[in-house]
Amino acid sequence: MNKTLFPQHGANMGQPVPRYEGRAKVTGEARYPSDVRLPRTAYAYLHISRIGRGTVQAFDLAAASAVPGVIDILTHETIGDQIKQTPAIYQGGYASDSFRPLGSAEIAYWGQPVAVVIAETYEAAREAAHRIGVTYGPHSPPAADMDSPDAVAQALVPMAIDVGDFDAAYAAAPIKIDARYSTPAQHQNPMELFATQCMWEGGRLVVHEPSQYVNSVKFGLAEQLGIDPERIRVISTYVGGAFGAKGFLTQRTALVAIAARRIGRPVKLVATREQGFTVSGYRAETRQHVQLAAEQDGRLIALKHEGWELTSRADTVAMGAVSMTTRLYACANIVGRVNAVSADRSTPGFMRAPGEMPYGFALETALDELSSKLDMDPVELRRVNDTRTEPVGGLPYTSRSLMRCFDEAAAAFGWQDRTRQPGSMRDGDWLVGWGCASAFYPTQAGNSAARVRLTADGRVHVSSAGHELGQGMYTMMAQVAAEELGVPIERVTVSLGDSDLPPAVVSGGSAATASVAPAIMAACDAIRRRLGVGNSPPAGVRAAMEASGMGVIEEFAETRAHGLPLESVRDMYRGKALPTGGVSLPDRVQFALGAQFVEVRVHALTHEIRVSRAVGAFAAGRIINPRTAHGQLIGGMIWGISSALHEHTEVDGRNASYINANLADYLLPVNADIVDIQAIMVPEEDKLVNRAGVKGVGEIGVVGVAAAVSNAVFHATGRRLRDLPIRIEHVM
Amino acid sequence: MTTGLSTDRRRFLIGSAVTGTIPFMPRDAASQVPEPSRSPGSYPSVDLTLHVNGQEHRVEVDPRTTLLDALRDHIGLTGVKKGCDHGQCGACTVLVEGRRELSCLTLAVSVQQREVTTIEGLAASDGGLHPMQQAFIDHDAFQCGYCTPGQILSAIGCVREGHASTPADIRESMSGNICRCAAYPNIVVAIMQARERMEG
C-alpha cells in the first residue's frame, strides 16, 4: 500500500494545496444543479421511444392525463415548430446532435424523447409517463450496429493521410504485422444524472444544469427558443462528473424551458439512469485495421491505420485519431484512413480520451505484436522509433519526454525482472503477465476571459465561466491568482460555472487549465500594471496596493490561444470557444506523453482476470497542483482498466436498444477491482504550448492502459486479444 | 462488479422496517416542526414524521416516495444524492439507526420512527468535521464530489461494522459505492486514517 498518495511540490509544479471546495463537498453543502430548490417546482418525466426507427402514429394520453397531479403533457403535437433547429457542434452549432426535440413524429433512434409529463410530484409524473400509450407506425428493424445490412459506411476523405509509398514499402519489408481490432460502445455514466431545472422570471430564463459549457447551453437554447441570449442565464457551479457527456446542449433543456413557460412555474427534470444512455452522446464502437512493417532492428518502415466508427444517420461524427497515431513514431511511409458508419442510433459524442483510447489501443497492441515477432523488448521498440518531429508534416514537437516516461515507469514497475516468454511468470495458479504501452494526448487550448479583483485588505476574487467537474477548477483558479498576486490562497475566492461571468472555453479536451490559467494571468498582469509593479515579484503587489490608496482594482482580460484566428475571440462571446492544438497547428505539434505498465493475473482454473498493479508516468508540462493532477491521472488509469476489462454498452440487434442501460449491468470498476495504482509525474517544462506551460492531465491517464492490459494478457497466457473488453470467456 | 442488494436482502430491509420492533428514541421536545408540505398524487398522501439528524420533520408525501426523495425534495437535505434510483451505485447511502442503507430503496413511510443520519448531520454544531470528512479532505478522496456523501456515510458504517481493518477489507466492504472519478485508492487510505481517529 503506497501511502504517499500524491506527490509533493517538485520541479515545475505548484503546491499540492487541498481542494478549494473540499469542505463543501464533504459536508453536503456543495449545491449541484439538481440540488437547487425553486419555489413551486413541478416535476418532469420523459417518455422515450421503444422502437429504433419509424414514426409515432398516435398517442393515447387519457390514462396519463387522468393521473391526479398531472399538469401538462408535451409531445410533438404540442411542441410542433416551437423549438427551432440549432445545428450540432460538428456543423458549427451548439447542440450535441441535430435532432429537433419533439420536432416531428419521426423516430430516429431507440430512447428518443417522444413525450414529457409535467406533474405536481415526481411520483405522479413518473406514473403518468408510464401510462402514456404510443402507437408506432409500421416499421422495419433498425440498423443497430456496423454489421447491419442497412448500415452505410462512408470514407471521410479530408481525414486521409498519405506519406511516402506505403504499399511498396510494406510489400518489401522483412517483418510485418497485419491485424484487426475492435472497441465497443461505451457510456460516460457520470454519477450525477442529467438534470435540468428551468425558471422564468419575467422575460428572463434561469437554467440550472450540470454542464461543461454553460455558454453552449445559453446561446444554443436562445437560438432554439428564438429569444435574445441575454435573457438566458445558465448556472452550473458544481458538476457531478461529466467526462464529455455534459459538453454541449442536449434536447432536454428546451423541453424543460418550454414546459416551465407553459405552466408559469419552475420545472425540474432528472432523467433516469437508463434514459441517460440516450440523453447525450457516447463513445461509439470502432473497428480498426493496423498494418506495420519494420526492419530487423525494429525501426518502422511502413504504418497504416484505418478506423471505422459508428455514427447516427443525422450526424457524421468521427473522432478519427489516426491523425495522432500516425504522428507518434518515426516512419517514412504512412497511410491513415477514417470511415463513418451510419446506423439508426443516437448521435455519438465525446467520452474521456474520445479517439485516443480506441485508436491508441489498436496501435499500441500492434506494436506489442511487432516486438513479439522481433523478439525485442517493447520498451526498446518505442525507443528506436522515438522522434523529435512528427513524420506526417515534419513538424517539431514542442517538447517530448516519451522515453523519459518509459524509463521512470519501467524502473518503478521493476520491468527489468520481466522474462520475455509468454506464460513464463506463473505464480501458483495465477498466470502473471506484464505489459506496457505509450500514452498520448494532444495539448490543446481555447480562448478564455477572466476577471480578477484585488481589494485593499489583500483579498482577491477571480471569476470566469469555467466549470468544476472534479478536476479541480476552483482550486486551480485560486492558486494561479494567489501565485500571480502574491497573496495566501486562503485570501482568494472564486466564481465559476455561470454564464453571467466572463466567458471561458468548453471544459473539455483536457484544455480547461491551459485555457483559463493564461486569462487569469493576463488579468493579474493588468492589476500589476495599474499598480506600477509590472514585472517585480508578486510580493510587491500587496505593498503597492496599500501605498496606492485605492480601495479596489478590478481587471478583465481575454486571451487567444495559439492557432486560433483573430475573429475567434468574438466567437467566445457567443458560446463558441472550442480548443485547438495537438496536430491541428500549422507550425508544430503538441502532445502530453506517458508510459503505462500493468501487471495482469489470469487464474489458470477460473480464468478470472485481475489487474494487480499499474504504474503510469506522464510528462504534461507544468503541473499547477500535483494533488488534483494526481487524482486525474489515477482516475484516468482506472478508466483505462475499465475500458480493458469492464465497460461495454450492449446493443440489441432487434431494436437498437441498449440492453444494459443501468449501473448493475453496465460494468464499472468498484473499489475491490482496484488494487495498486501509481502515477508518476515526470517533470517537464514547455514554454511554447501556452503561457502557463500547461499541457493538461484530464485524459492522458486513460490512454494506452487497454493496450498495456491486452499486452499483459498475451504475456500471461500467450493469447493475443484484439477486441475490448477482455473478459473471462476470451481467455478460456 | 457492482454489489447492489439482492432481492432477498431488499425484501428483508423493507419488511423489517415496516414490521420490525422499533426502538423508541427520545426527541428534543423543543425541536422545530415545520408546516407539512402538501402533495397531490394518485394515491392518498400520507402524513409522516421523519427523524433526521436529531430533528423532527413532518411531511405529507405520496406513499411511493422514497426516503431519498423525501430528504431531498420535501425536507431540503440535498446532500444525499440520486445516482441511479435502483440501489446500484450507493450515492444515496444514509445511516438508519447507525446502519448504512440505500435511501433510494427505502420508502419514506418505512423509517418513521427510526433515526436517519445524512451527511448534513455529521459535522459538530461548532462546524468541526467528523474524522471521516476530514480524512476525505486530507487524502483527496474525491473529485467531483457527487458520490462523496454516500462514500463518507458508507465508510462510517464500514468502520463501525469492523470491516476496516485492512485495505483489502475496506475495498470489499466499500464496493457498493461507485466512484466514477475513481478516487478509490485515496478513499481506502482516508478510511484507514479515520478509523484510527474514530477508534482512538
Structure description:
The complex is a heterodimer of chains A (732) and B (200). With 732 residues, chain A is α+β, with helices and mostly antiparallel strands. Chain A has three domains: 1-29 and 387-443 and 582-732, 2-Layer Sandwich (Aldehyde Oxidoreductase, domain 4), CATH 3.30.365; 33-140 and 194-279, Aldehyde oxidase/xanthine dehydrogenase, molybdopterin binding domain (Aldehyde Oxidoreductase, domain 4), CATH 3.30.365.10; 445-580, Aldehyde oxidase/xanthine dehydrogenase, molybdopterin binding domain (Aldehyde Oxidoreductase, domain 4), CATH 3.30.365. In chain A, 25% of the residues lie in helices and 24% in strands. Chain A has 18 helices and 28 strands. In chain A, the strands form seven sheets. In chain A, strands 3-5-1-13-10-11-12 form a seven-stranded mixed beta sheet, sandwiched between helices. In chain A, β24 and β25 (609-619) form a beta hairpin. The longest helix of chain A is centred in the last third of the chain and has 20 residues, at 626-645. Chain A is globular and about 75 Å long. The mean pLDDT of chain A is 97. With 200 residues, chain B is an alpha+beta fold. Chain B folds into two domains: 7-121, Beta-grasp domain (Ubiquitin-like (UB roll)); 131-199, [2Fe-2S]-binding domain (DNA polymerase, domain 1, Orthogonal Bundle). Chain B has six helices and five strands; from the N terminus they run αββαβββαααα. Chain B has a five-stranded mixed beta sheet with strand order 2-1-5-3-4, sandwiched between helices. Chain B is globular and about 50 Å long. Chain B starts with 6 loop residues before the first helix and ends with a helix. Mean pLDDT of chain B is 85; it is low at 1-39. The interface between A and B is large, with 76 and 70 residues.
